[in-house]
Structure formats: C-alpha cells, structure tokens
Amino acid sequence: MKESLKIPFFLNILGWILSLLVMVVDVIVIRDWVSGKPMDLFFRAVYSAFSKIGWGVSLSFIVISCFYGHGGIINRFMSWPYWSPLGKITYSTYLIHLMIIVYVVGGFEGRFVFVSIWNTFIYINLPIIVLSLFFAFFWSAIFEIGVGRIEDPLLGRRST
Questions:
Q1: Is pTM beyond 0.90 here?
Q2: Which long-range contacts (CB under 8 A, 24 or more apart) does 103-110 make?
Q3: Which residue ranges run through the membrane (predicted)?
C-alpha cells in the first residue's frame, strides 16, 4: 500500500499551471531559432542551462501528482485500462523509436522548418509513433516474448 501525499489544492493547481507553462515555454521559445533566426548567446546559454532541468522538474511534478491521486482528468486518462495491452511493447518502442526518427526525418529533402503544430504532428510525429509501435510489436514478439518462453523452462519457472 502506498503512502498518501497530501498536496493542498492551491499548491496542486499552482504546480500544474507552472509545470505546463514551463513545458510550453521550453518548446515554443526556440521556434525562431529552429526557423533559422540566430539566438543571442545569453539566451542560448540560459536555455541550454535550464530547459532540461525545467522539463524534468515539471514532468516529475506531473508524475508525482498523478501517482498520489491529484492528477484529475490527466490521471483518469493515463489510468485507462485500454493502455494495458500496450504495456508489453513500450520498452520495445523505446528501443526502436530512435531508428524510426532517423528514418523519417532523414527522408526530408532540405531543411526542416517549423510551420505549425498540426503540420509537425501529421508529417513527423504521427508517422514516427505509428511506425515505432508497428515495428515494436514484432520486436516484442520476437525478443521479449520469445526469449521469455525459452527462459522459463531453463530457470524452472512455470509459463502462464
């Protein structure tokens, strides 16, 4: 049984707002730089120093808040039982996704320029997600499940 962490309502709302704000700023602040406009050295240094820390702390707050039941609609969405079948292939997806990213982004001719969120989602993120899950299904079937079937008799465990 997990211990209960009581986060006051006001601090929880403030934490969610700050977390989402930091994450959005972390992504949007480099839009001009990605489009080719040079970023000032000071802002580049500040972004490099604090962007990953801010993202990590924000994501950590969201995970902790959801774990202890303060996540609201995000927690309900992430706790759907429909996500359970995907649990077997998540590690395989993690292992494969970098190769898929290199393949999809490498297929572009010319420079990649940020046009809009929807354009990026439809032409980059969606193919990467679909291809990663597709290949991860087979990767999982071959290696995770296959090796598990071989490993069980060797270690004297009963397979289920």
A1: no
A2: 103/131, 104/128, 104/131
A3: 7-29, 49-68, 89-108, 120-142
